[in-house]
Amino acid sequence: MIIKEDSVLTQREAPSETFILNLGPQHPATHGVLRVKMTMDGEFVTRAEPVCGYIHRMQEKMAENRTYAQYLPNTSRIDYLSAMTYTHAFVGVVERAAKLQVPRRAEYIRVITSELNRISSHLVWWGAFLLDLGGFTPLLYAFDDREKILDLLEGVTGARLTYAYYRIGGLYNDVDDAFLNGTRAFVAHMRPRLKMYRELVTENIILRKRLVRIGMVTDQMCRRYGASGPVIRGSGVPYDVRKAEPYSAYPDFDFDIPCFTEGDSMARYLVRLEEIAQSLRIIEQALDRLPSGPVMAEKVPRVLKLPVGDYCYAVEAARGRFMVRLVSDNKEIPYRLKLRTPCLSNLSLFEEASQGMLLPDALAFMGSLDLVIPDIDR
Amino acid sequence: MNTSLPGQTSTNPQPVNSAPNTAAPVAPVLPPVGLEFLTRSTLPFQTVDYALKGYHLDANVGSDKVVAAAVELNREGFALDTITGVDWLAQNQMEVVYDYFHPLTGLRVVIRSKVARENPEFPTISTVYPGAAWHEREAHDFFGIRFSGHPNLIPFLLPEDATYHPLRKDFAP
To answer: Taking the CB of residue B89, how many other CB atoms lie within 10 A of it?
Structure first.
């Protein structure tokens, strides 16, 4: 393409020639097997069409040929960075259908572990996103802090990523003092780290030039595409399932929904960082008031047959609204299990929102959506 | 920074220090706001106990009414949650379930529609909710439900040459 001397790069000539740029499915910027078919006009994106399904595992079919307890470990493997919250939604829908009363201690521990999981997920995003933008150091800080969470969760669940810690009616096991003290120490450790993150990265002029007023997403666009999580909260809508459809022990705790009205990549960045601080608040309150008692409901039938009907249960996962829709026909296995995942809806607005963007900006925008590809493909 | 949704009162911390280890509090049955749209709604809504079901309103409509329902919910400010199918092999019916949520009130609405299983065809709602396009492609993959008027009804998650619909109850691999 010949650029005339008097034209500047941001003022486009009429499109003379477009070409297709194939991004992925093995491109490092997509963090997984996502393919984006980009129609380019020079450096500008005319159309970016995500092509999904490269890691499709037919999770919903798997649910239809095994019992509820047998399917439970699968729920850790949909969004592997946010495994706790996904298992929470699954056990939640079964408990709702079976009318099981979960002990309060179990609910509190679910909240603590879910929020720890949210922090670790946001830390991975933070490090990887900044790595995409060319900053290597933050990744090392983020993984250092995340390691502390993984150690805590490994001590109590036995796993570092795919926890499957919640069980129908309660928890796999109770937490010990090492976990409680370690979590307190982590909260105390993380607050100054967040301040350091802000000083180190957030005010960085290069970062701001890559994020501010780039990747604009309006609240109406979020609504029409069903985007949720930090994407909708970065567009000025304080929608959080923990407040909109209170579940588990969340009504017991005092916390804010971070919400920024700008709708750019920076707003989504700030929402996630602020969410880490709010999660620390929730964890602290839950630790202070942790009730004693059992962590498993008394009467959980070994063979679980749920009453006929359909049931929903939504949670606020790290990436947004995750909902399980269960249709039961009173058999030991689900008749139908639908997994409504946040990344699918969040990515679906990419095609509209990325139109006319410069390619590097589109990639920064994609990073700010915080995609986990197995969550889209299931 | 807006910190709370209008009308939600359940966010106040409860004194739980002395609370015994009893059952969790019951989720609110209906949010106090957002229901006034029922008075101007043309859809056959039934109120549902949220604590039992996980949604607030449920409407069963004909397949020719799903677009009108989407138009109405769009006007009321609802967001598209998801679209999915259910194969009722014994009843010889194919169901499509449209889930919506309201980003400001938290209201959860379900629109469902059934047609004969031999010819599962629904009009697309992607003209109203562009986000529906992917969900409809997925339902087409899994159930073979056709969405007339869909701009791009090609395989979404299944291979591009897939001729099978794995979530149909008579599917044998």
So the answer is: 11
